[in-house]
From TrEMBL:
GO BP terms: iron ion transport
Family annotation (Gene3D superfamilies): Cupredoxins - blue copper proteins (2.60.40.420)
Annotated signal peptide: 1-19
Molecular-function GO term, any one: copper ion binding
Residue ranges, annotated region (Disordered): 132-151
UniProt-recorded name of the protein: Plastocyanin-like domain-containing protein
Protein family membership: Belongs to the multicopper oxidase family.
């Protein structure tokens, strides 16, 4: 009996990976976002106002919002004073801070809402209980278990998420996998308003390596500004004749659907620079609705995906994949979605 008790105790200890606390301070801020800084279609070389296809989505007018929209975004800070912002790489664009952890770790995410309405922070690919879910829906909970559902303006909440082995990278996976976090008070409208970011979850010991691999996180999304909580604000602020706007007009609605990568359109995504013969990891995520079918295509080089060398992968709404590349063909190459409507 004593031997059996000893064996059971040992098995329990072996199965419980003990990691460290990964602490983050996120603020939810309302900011203007420009889908096309510079006013050019970099691919065609034309100014937006001379490009018939591009100006449909980006040219402001009497009843068109155009390239600038008010958004809500996650911003990272150094501590709980929320005074010193941690700048993110330019290529991250609209996406919230990348939050990294290893299997066995615990995310401790302090969130303060500086916006004008309730928002939350809901993760994918980690373990949590009801009071750390960050998602509002009829779940028959009450009291403390509902406080995480939505953080009111000027309010704060702390989420605890565990990175457990059965949700981390498998033995066959790369060192790290990508997951998502986003607001989930009203998920389609919250995400359409801009509140989405990435979790990078790694095998034990990866983040402590002295040499870190080059990596990029790319969100392929047809961002639907018609769903944004800020639609009325954007109409009244950026349309020169807001009274003429019909929000049910098909052309108006189409103009607010922004096919973008990290919130950038027509070749304006900056900073995707790397050296030849140096391994790069590309984390790619999709979000949206039935229109969000994407085929990221790497011109000039190939990537390894599921043990195959390819130049194009498939990405669907709420899907998350990672590929590796060892670029060996120097130059300036196009990264695009090959779905016809998005490619145009």
């Amino acid at each position: 009996m004593n031997l059996l008790g000893t064996c059971l105790l040992c098995l329990c200890c072996i199965g419980d990976v003990v990691g460290e606390d990964r602490i983050f301070y996120l603020g939810i801020r309302e900011k203007e976002w420009n889908y096309n800084p510079g006013g050019m279609n970099i691919i065609s070389g034309k100014p937006i106002d001379e490009d018939e296809q591009a100006k449909m989505y980006l040219q402001p007018g009497p009843n068109r919002i155009g390239n600038i929209n008010m958004k809500a975004i996650y911003v990272q800070y150094t501590d709980d004073t929320y005074t010193v912002e941690i700048k993110q790489p330019a290529w991250q664009g609209l996406m919230g801070p990348i939050m990294r952890a290893e299997v066995g770790d615990t995310y401790i995410v302090h969130v303060r809402n500086f916006a004008s309405r309730n928002y939350s922070c809901h993760p994918h690919g980690v373990d949590y209980n009801k009071k750390n879910e960050g998602a509002l829906y009829p779940d028959n909970t009450s009291g403390n278990d509902k406080e995480d559902d939505g953080i009111p303006p000027n309010g704060s909440y702390t989420y605890h998420w565990r990175v457990v082995p059965d949700q981390g990278p498998s033995a066959e996976d790369n060192d790290c996998v990508v997951r998502l976090y986003h607001s989930h008070v009203n998920a389609p409208k919250d995400i359409g308003s801009g509140l989405i970011g990435a979790l990078i979850i790694c095998k034990e010991g990866v983040l402590s390596k002295t040499t870190q691999k080059k990596e990029f996180v790319l969100l392929f999304s047809l961002i639907d500004e018609n769903l944004s909580w800020y639609l009325d604000h954007n109409i009244n602020t950026y349309c020169s004749d807001p009274g003429s706007v019909d929000k049910e007009d098909e052309d108006f609605m189409e103009s607010n659907k922004k096919p973008s990568i990290n919130g950038f359109m027509y070749g304006t995504l900056p900073g995707l620079c790397m050296c030849d013969n140096t391994e790069v990891t590309w984390y790619m995520v999709g979000i949206g609705n039935e229109e969000d079918i994407h085929t990221p295509h790497f011109h000039g080089n190939v990537v390894t995906y599921q043990y195959s060398r390819v130049d194009t992968v498939s990405l669907f709404s709420a899907s998350m994949i990672q590929v590796t590349m060892t670029p060996c063909n120097p130059g300036k190459w196009l990264l695009s979605c090959q779905v016809n409507d998005h490619y145009e």
